[in-house]
Amino acid sequence: FKGVYRLTWYKNQMLFHSVAGVQQGLLDAGLSTMLLKGAALTMQYYRDYGLRPMGDVDVLVRTEQAPAAIALLTQLGWRPKWRPIESFVEPIFSVMHGHTFLDTAGHALDLHWHVLPECTYPGADLDFWEGAVPMGFLGVPTHALNPADQLLHVCTHGTTWSPISPIRWIADAMTILNAPQIEIDWDRLLAQARKHLLVVPLRAALCYLRRAFDAQIPPMFMHALQATRVSKLDQIEHTIRLTSPRRISRFPLLVLRYRRYARA
Predict the structure, then answer these.
(1) pTM of the predicted protein model
(2) What is the pLDDT of residue 247?
């Protein structure tokens, strides 16, 4: 375990320092940034470089600033992992939520222009930006999701199928819930889940955490979450989200696409 801890500490240090220059460049260009997922959790909740392994750093920019951010990444020597740079034209920003970029050393940066892959319509992230909290990243000022939005993001991301098991969401969520001097706005969490049509995955995640790990979640909040009415489509979407794309037919995929469109 000590060896795994030291290796994680080392890899995260190398990864963070490779991305710090990008963060500074985005700041100098007048672009707003927000750290998501592992990097933000490490800095704000784990507070230890060796406790949270990650394969990349997730950086969010405002949707309208995404083309400028991609241009800057290209100038700094970062290249998109799966698609040509010419494909990043306006329509893609309302279909995809982000893309992975690599530097010459193989370090990965996930550039996001939307927080949630389910919500890629114009204005979908305004409330996340408005509720963001300031933080520093190796001396570079940036932002992170507030605790309620962070918990929503962790739970919904963790309850989605991935070729690499997203089991880390359990540790992430419990670390947020148990973090000292951190207050979660439970009213905001419920409102955000309802607004973004994510009540079903949030309910499934928090019920599991209470059952398996005795997570301290206010009973009044759980009652309100359980009492929230959800549609049959909400339930179908959650079932599809838990399934490998290779194991479902074309129709369920069309349901997912329609649901993302309907959120707008």
Answers:
(1) 0.91
(2) 78
